[in-house]
């Protein structure tokens, strides 16, 4: 039975069960379609292909490459890499790129992230829908076009160049000795951390003692899911930081493009605080070069990001999602962008996200001053936040309207906007300061709530009041 590609081709990538939904034949058809829709029209002579540690990756990547080369386009096989390593290859080689990964999804899944030359994202509106439709035609029996001379596959190791490039973007000269626990979650950070933070790629050693957790590459994730966004998956790192007396803990997801931080007490540091910290550093670097700075933050990052960064830079608010961040960054030539999901984007990294570069900034900030990580994080965490709370509802649209009506009546002075779901902001010097965002999931009948306030009591009451409206049955 032919696979229905609409089930596995999402808004920004491909994600499905292997082989039931994403089989080698499907990968081959997608490779051919990628060559026809992206590589050939863009005049690209080669496509970079990388993969994470999942057992299904080699066969899928091999068949995808076969589809690409059948259209006369060469393939540069960079083998095992992180997603930001693939972006580095796409940017440095100026070639379209494809990464086989399902990020933090369970072992039975795999997926594909695609980009154009220079790590420019390929999403539904920028080629992914056309790739899906063309691959579907081929799977349904359409005769594919084949070049007279097929392309070649060439292997190339980019890990050392990737590590050196990241090191070149952060000044680590004042780094004091630090002990750092790193939880790779059996994902690709087990390959990249020794290269970037250590000397595995031939770079000079840093004054870091790295305590490794789960560095063995294993796509079955035997210890815990490689998704640090879930608090339970940080527990091993938090215990290890305390037991080793470490200065800091770092956790990466499966494809190592997101980085989460734990302070010396084992407390998780908000990604919004990291956004503010790294943003301040990048703004200072931009201003030192005599240029005005612009940074991007999605609308569920802490108000502290706007408060702190807005004093010395232009802060542009955007919707949640990497495609919106990357597009907005490119439009404004923004030096940095952050999301509360711990994706961090850098202009000097082709506007792409890289958790490893964010980690280097955190280490540089911590290691260039005497205070512990917790004290440093507190500087960027002045408000109380709920974290994201998911509620299953029958009609997300009607529920959102009910909440909007209630708050417009109760707080006519509040600012209401619908950039991404519903945001109600009540933040001035005459009233208690708070805001919340209520967004519908793209794939499930869920509403996602984020609340922040100037103090914990206000946040708790607001959170509970909004949730009571969300869970109230419509009359």
Account of the protein in words:
The protein is α/β, with parallel strands linked by helices and 475 residues long. It contains 14 helices and 23 strands. The chain has helices at 24-39, 57-69, 83-93, 128-139, 159-168, 189-196, 235-243, 271-288, 303-309, 322-332, 355-367, 373-378, 396-410, 456-471; strands at 14-17, 46-51, 74-80, 97-100, 109-116, 120-121, 153-155, 178-183, 208-213, 248-252, 259-262, 268-269, 294-298, 314-318, 336-338, 344-346, 352-353, 384-385, 389-392, 415-417, 422-426, 434-440, 446-453. The strands form four sheets. Strands 1, 2, 3, 4, 5, 6 and 7 form a seven-stranded mixed β-sheet that branches. Strands 18, 19, 20, 21, 22 and 23 form a six-stranded antiparallel β-sheet that branches. A hairpin with a 6-residue loop joins strand 10 (248-252) and strand 11. The protein is globular and about 75 Å long.
Q: Quick recap of the structure?
A:
By secondary structure, the protein is α/β, with parallel strands linked by helices.
Q: Quote the CATH topology of the largest domain.
A: Alpha-D-Glucose-1,6-Bisphosphate, Chain A, domain 3
Specify the overall morphology.
globular
User: In CATH's first tier, which class of the largest domain applies?
Assistant: Alpha Beta
Largest sheet: 7 strands, mixed
How many helices does DSSP assign? 14
Compute the average pLDDT: 95
Q: Give the percentage of residues in beta strands.
A: 15-25%
Question: How many whole angstroms does the radius of gyration measure?
Answer: 23 Å
Strand-pairing-aware structural class: alpha/beta
How many DSSP-defined strands?
23
Number of domains: 4
């Amino acid at each position: 039975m032919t696979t229905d590609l609409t089930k596995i081709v999402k808004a920004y990538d491909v994600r499905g069960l292997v082989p039931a939904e994403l089989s080698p034949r499907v990968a081959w058809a997608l490779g051919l379609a990628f060559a026809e829709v992206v590589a050939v029209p863009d005049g690209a002579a080669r496509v970079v292909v990388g993969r994470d540690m999942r057992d299904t990756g080699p066969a899928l990547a091999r068949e995808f490459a076969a589809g690409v080369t059948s259209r006369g386009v060469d393939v540069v096989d960079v083998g095992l890499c992180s997603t930001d390593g693939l972006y580095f290859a796409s940017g440095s080689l100026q070639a379209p790129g494809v990464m086989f990964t399902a990020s933090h999804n369970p072992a039975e899944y795999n997926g594909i992230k695609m980009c154009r030359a220079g790590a420019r994202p390929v999403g539904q509106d920028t080629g992914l829908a056309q790739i899906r439709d063309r691959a579907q035609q081929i799977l349904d029996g359409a005769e594919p076009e084949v070049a007279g001379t097929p392309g070649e596959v060439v292997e190339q190791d980019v890990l050392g160049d990737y590590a050196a490039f990241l090191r070149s973007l952060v000044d680590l000269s004042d780094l004091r000795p630090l002990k750092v626990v790193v939880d790779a979650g059996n994902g690709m950070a087990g390959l990249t951390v020794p290269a970037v933070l250590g000397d595995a790629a031939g770079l000079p050693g840093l004054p870091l003692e790295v305590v490794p957790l789960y560095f063995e590459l294993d796509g079955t994730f035997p210890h815990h899911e490689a998704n640090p966004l879930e608090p339970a998956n940080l527990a091993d790192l938090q215990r290890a930081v305390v037991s080793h007396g470490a200065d800091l803990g770092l956790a990466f997801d499966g494809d190592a493009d997101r980085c989460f931080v734990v302070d010396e007490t084992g407390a998780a540091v908000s990604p919004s605080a990291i956004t503010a910290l790294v943003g301040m550093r990048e703004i200072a670097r931009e201003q030192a070069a005599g240029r005005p700075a612009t940074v991007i933050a999605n609308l569920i990052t802490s108000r502290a990001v706007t408060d702190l960064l807005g004093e010395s830079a232009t802060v542009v608010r955007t919707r949640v999602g990497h495609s919106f961040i990357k597009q907005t960054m490119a439009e404004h030539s923004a030096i940095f962008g952050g999301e509360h999901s711990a994706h961090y984007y850098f202009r000097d990294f082709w506007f792409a996200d890289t958790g490893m570069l964010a980690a280097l900034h955190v280490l540089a900030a911590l290691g260039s001053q005497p205070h512990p990580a917790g004290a440093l994080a507190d500087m960027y965490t002045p408000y109380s936040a709920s974290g994201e709370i998911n509620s299953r509802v029958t009609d997300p649209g009607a529920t959102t309207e009910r909440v909007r009506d209630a708050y417009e009546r109760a707080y006519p002075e509040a600012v209401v906007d619908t950039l991404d779901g519903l945001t109600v902001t009540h933040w001035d010097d005459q009233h208690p300061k708070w805001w919340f965002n209520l967004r519908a999931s793209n794939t499930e009948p869920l509403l996602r709530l984020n609340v922040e306030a100037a103090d914990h009591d206000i946040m708790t009451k607001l959170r509970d009041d909004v949730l009571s409206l969300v869970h109230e049955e419509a009359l």
